[in-house]
Specification:
single chain, mainly beta, 2 domains, five-stranded antiparallel sheet
């Protein structure tokens, strides 16, 4: 038997761009932010293993030595509970989890830094691996002006950067969606075992500069010539995991959502399901609507929601299926 139901939705704008004029999601408290608070119910686990490769306090002055704040265990557990580990210029953290991260609707994990405000942003590239050998980088974009070096305690506009960790202030994670990484035979997006965080050397001098996916220099606070210099890694929170206790992927047969983006009504068509409930969350994992009753042809009215991207979760018999939708 085939069941079709209608869901009235409000969603919003996807923040994407490849030119120097493109703008992305803004700071924590601004409309359209993608920041995820550490206590969000979306997080199902946190990094629990890993290693650190320290970077220099100042890559242009090797004699100053390496950063020395924290260690690998500082990046384990819930954000804000175990301190931070400072990576230094070009430093690296490679973290592991009790079960692989998987690709599902919306962001799949989030990286936390400890910035004390919304503009002092120390950034890092993020890469993932499903074998611990081959790593693949999220396509990072930095549209920050590069004519003047951002000073050691200088400011960065969060809306000018995308797919770079450190976009948000402390206790608010920067989310990453595995869909953003191009498919590759050496990467199993349903079984991510390692997340690598690489400090951005924010220097705009050619000999030290690091560059984004468009080959633009990434300009962030530099130099930070002290023991806590560079990206200060707090935690990595997992949103989608290969195996979650008590939750199984719902077998629905053929599923489609249309139109997407939608203006007023989202149509969801599926097979092999008679009894179900529906919930809607935003990308920060906050529940914004829920019904324990089957949706009939009258649809589900959620016109009071703010514009944004949402996750529709269908639940039946202890199993779930998630679908991402957008309201234009």
């Amino acid at each position: 038997m085939k069941h079709t139901f209608y869901v009235s939705v409000i969603a919003g704008l996807l923040f994407t761009g490849t030119t120097v004029n493109a703008q992305f999601a803004p700071s924590v408290d601004e409309p359209g932010t993608t920041a995820m608070y550490k206590d969000s119910s979306a997080f199902v686990e946190w990094a629990s293993t890993g290693k650190i490769i320290r970077g220099l306090q100042d890559i242009s002055m090797p004699g100053m030595g390496y950063t020395n704040v924290g260690d690998s265990t500082s990046a384990f557990g819930i954000a804000g509970t175990t301190g931070v580990v400072s990576l230094g210029d070009g430093g690296i953290a490679i973290l592991g989890f009790s079960a692989p991260i998987s690709d599902d609707a919306g962001p799949d994990f989030a990286v936390f830094e400890n910035s004390f405000n919304d503009s002092f942003l120390e950034l890092a590239f993020v890469e993932v691996s499903s074998d611990g050998i081959h790593f693949f980088r999220f396509p990072a974009t930095s549209n920050t002006d590069t004519t003047i070096q951002t000073a050691g305690f200088g400011a960065t506009d969060a809306s000018s950067i995308n797919n770079l960790a450190g976009k948000y202030r402390g206790l608010y994670g920067t989310p990453f969606d595995l869909d953003d990484i191009p498919d590759d035979a050496l990467l199993n997006k349903q079984a991510i075992t390692h997340v690598k965080i690489i400090d951005v050397v924010g220097c705009i001098q050619n000999q030290y500069a690091t560059r984004d996916v468009n080959h633009h220099k990434v300009n962030d606070p530099w130099p930070t010539g002290f023991g806590s210099g560079g990206f200060d890694l707090d935690a990595v929170g997992v949103i989608h995991q290969q195996a979650q206790v008590g939750i199984k992927e719902l077998v629905l047969g053929q599923v489609s959502v249309y139109p997407n983006p939608a203006t007023d009504v989202l149509f969801v068509s599926m097979t092999n399901l008679a009894m179900y409930s529906v919930s809607v969350t935003n990308l920060m994992g906050e529940l914004v609507l829920q019904t324990d009753n089957n949706i009939n042809t009258a649809g589900l009215n959620i016109n009071e929601l703010k514009q944004g991207v949402y996750i529709l979760t269908i639940t039946a018999n202890g199993q779930q299926r998630k679908l991402k939708f957008v309201k234009s």
